[in-house]
Amino acid sequence: MPTQTRSYTVHYNPSGAWLTLPAADLLDVGGDLELSGDASQPLMLGDAATARATLTIRASAWSSIPARCPIRVDLTRDSTTLRVFTGLVVERARALIGAAATLTCASVERIISTTRADSPAFFRRPVATRTTLTSIDDPTNGGYAGGLINYLLWQAGGRPAEQDVSYPSASFYYSCEPAILAPEWSWAAGEDAWEELRKLASAAGGQLFIDAGGIVRYRQPLAFGGGSAAYTFTESVYGDISERIDDDTVLATRIQCPYVPRVARPLQEVISDDTPRLIAGSATITFDLAPQWPLKSLELNAGALADDALTILFLDGQIAPRGASGYTHSVAAWAQRISITISNSTTRPILVRRVLLRGEPISAGEPGMVEAGSGTVTRTLADNPYVQSRGHAQRLSNLHLALYATPRARRTLSGCAFDPGRTLGETVNLTCTAWSLSAVPHLITAIRYGRVGADVSYDLVDVSGLPGTNEYFLVGSTVYTGLTRRMGF
Amino acid sequence: MRDLPTSFTTDEILSGFALGLLRDAAIDLDGLSYRRVHAYDAHSDDTALHASGDYRLWWGSIQYRAGMTTLNAFGRAASAAGTIQMRINGSLATSASATSTWSLQADISTGYSEGDILPIELVTSGNTTKTSNRFVLGVYASPVAMPTAYPGVPTFSTSYTPALLNQLLSTCHWLYDRITAVPYVPHIAQIMRPATHKAQTIILYSGGIPRFHTQDELHIEIWQNLLPNPGEYIQVLVDGSVVYTGSTQPPGGTAAYDLALPLTHTLGTTVPVVVRAVVTATPTPYTLINSRYTIRTVGTIARTTPYPAATPPAAFPENGSIAHATAVSQLNAIATMLTNVKSRIDGRPELWNRIRAFRRRFAIDERQNTKLAKMYVPRRARQGDRLVVHGKGVGIQWGSFKLAEKEGEIDYDDYTFSDSESLTDGEAIETKTVWFDQFRGLVPGAWYTLSGDCYFASEFLY
């Protein structure tokens, strides 16, 4: 049997440049990639993968790697090097007596989580749009039509993996499939971006992965089945296999999905702020205002606020006009944040007495509920702010019913050698002669690795019977004459 | 209404739900391409009885839209004496001799901006008799201009390309916009209006009734609210001929009429319609109590033979199998439905290439305009989503109707509705756009009236 050589290399970026940790300073690498769905629903829509890595280093290297330092881990196997982890240090531990220190690293979802992004309101835009070599993912581009998932990932510093040549220094990369569902209105308002991504994936029926290479991936739900397996797990690859089918859990035969309609209303007053704001002579202030409802649009006049939007006075009561003898201003508007900058053009102090803004608010209507399926075992989907129409709720219910109609076995393969070619969410075949499984398609839902080349385990979910993308009619130039396919949700 | 999918992009899974929205849109547009209309309101009394000298025949407004080039009025007259003048914004725009069939056309292609409310007056000039019987059959602006060209419909065969699907989607949008471009205009209802206490024939309503579809009938809803006269009945005349005679009601009685009477005049034309009360006997002892009528509707309806509905293709499966040939056939059937909608629109320019003017209440001067504010009110059954009003102190009322009481007696000149909202300021003339959904209970099909001094009102689908 040929001998395989494997080694890890750790790269770190303490101050803008990537450095390599000397091999002698790296004592151990451990971690896992896992979807966090529960046992009864291993294909949970809206699930998001998180990756963790634990590095054991020599104590002497402690000062080299500061807090929240970006980290990359590569695995070299038989002279092939692959990236297996991208993230940042979130915890450091050491003891006085001992030669080792431990760095706990989280993947890029921590970077995304701490991103507080605002966006305009998008109307009926799929939550994720396909990233390609030429897709426009830069929101500042006039032709931007990306989904909110794309938007948040870009704002967090990610760039499309397909365009990595153009963005070699990106904080991380992402790759999205087109979502099959679109909310009426979607917008970001400074929340935890990772949680927003999960809600969006849940609303559209899809999953987020951070694969072994550190790429954040959005997968649409009809890609769970039908993927082409490039690899087969056989008895010669795994040491042991265990299987769990939760027969006590009766899968739902009826799905209920709540929704709250969102409708854009006509132009009306959306902010009336009477907070007095003093601006000293020649000074500038910037302040943010948040409308009660997200805005489809803010009333502007050639990029400036409406003439009556700002009431600004000199301290003697005289109105300060716009221009050189009063003030100048600029405004940046997102769906739920308006940032106004006012510069005093004079040497005399001025006082902002009132800010009155008009816009088209997107207000919520009466909540509703739809059902799919029949029977007594009912599962009610969680409230999701991005399920905003009866049609959307119905399609999501139908999707859940299709995915959860059949119990799916979760199988764990242990005693495997680590293979960086296997990625989370990958479709693989599984053969187990003893259980009469022969090249049955499965989805990898968890990868747990430990010491170099040893003791790696995989969790797989049986996806046989699930329709795959290739079973559907696709929009494009494919000729379907004489064929029968499925239509999507 | 108007729930259309987002645009189709390459590589996305073809959604049965999205195609279902296109199918629903085709069904919706097919139905919307038939339209019931109200008669053009001319007068609330006898056009042959008026003061000698010049007087106002008609007044109202239109809202200018880009592309409008002419403002038109047409009608009848009993004699050729004098002229009929059209004034826009108080200035003379055009005039024509008051011949038996007269028409006016003013050029409005320049001088106005999108959204301007144009006040219109039709007045006599050189009238010297009390019986000249000038009759306004209609006032409208034209044409209806669309900002973009009609996209046309695709033909599906081997593939579902974004170009074909998005063309179908664009056509749905265009047709919705085309139909929306012609608003629903409130008419003037008459609430508890007095008729007569004399033995005479009195005209309650005169107007112009168009006929746009072969199925159209004359729809009249009229209530006889108070009949002190022992011999009183109603008659309806179309183009001078009696088409309906009601039964004589007993004194003190009330009666409600919901009539659907045949219309036979040429499609696309408008003829006079008159509703009159005929009193053959007065009570003994004689009283000065007038009978009272409420005229809710004079318009068209397709009651005997409903407007036809196109048969849509079968529904598309959601996450289900379908043969390509079947899917293509269904998509092409949708395209055919849309083509037929377009043809129907193009084939009836009298309906779809004209924006009807809003008529203000029947009043020849400001004194009458104020005095008759509760008697003659703009009214419609909600059909759209958006209402534009222009006027002073305009309000909207809906819900249940109740006559007021005064000193223990019913006051036939005053009433309330269970629901009301103020739309414009009482002091200044304002233009306001409101969305019906903000008024609880004012659902599509519910009737509403507009109170105050309404200069203009029109209802839009979106």
Short description:
The complex is a heterodimer of chains A (489) and B (462). With 489 residues, chain A is mainly beta. Chain A contains four helices and 36 strands.
What does this structure look like?
- The complex is a heterodimer of chains A (489) and B (462).
- Helix content of chain A is 8%, strand content 42%.
- Chain A has helices at 109-113, 148-155, 193-204, 390-404, and strands spanning 6-12, 19-20, 26-35, 49-58, 70-77, 80-94, 100-107, 116-118, 122-123, 158-160, 172-176, 185-186, 189-192, 207-210, 216-219, 232-233, 240-244, 254-259, 262-264, 268-273, 277-279, 284-289, 295-298, 300-301, 304-305, 310-314, 327-333, 338-344, 350-364, 368-373, 378-380, 410-416, 427-432, 437-449, 456-462, 484-487.
- In chain A, strands 1, 2, 3, 4, 5, 6, 7, 16, 17, 32, 33, 34 and 35 form a 13-stranded mixed sheet that branches.
- In chain A, α2 packs antiparallel against α3 (193-204).
- With 462 residues, chain B is mainly beta.
- In chain B, the strands form four sheets. In chain B, strands 9, 11, 14, 16, 20, 21, 22, 23 and 24 form a nine-stranded antiparallel sheet that branches. Chain B has a five-stranded antiparallel sheet with strand order 1-10-15-12-13, with no helix packed on it. A five-stranded antiparallel sheet of chain B has the order 5-4-7-2-19, with no helix packed on it.
- In chain B, β21 and β22 form a beta hairpin.
- The longest helix of chain B is centred in the last third of the chain and has 23 residues, at 324-346.
- Chain B starts with 15 loop residues before the first helix and ends with a strand.
- The A-B interface holds A 124-126, 129-130, 178, 180, 182, 220, 222, 263, 265-266, 389, 391, 394-395, 398-399, 402, 467, 469, 472-489 and B 3, 5-6, 8-17, 19, 21, 157-162, 165, 316-325, 327, 386, 433-435, 437.
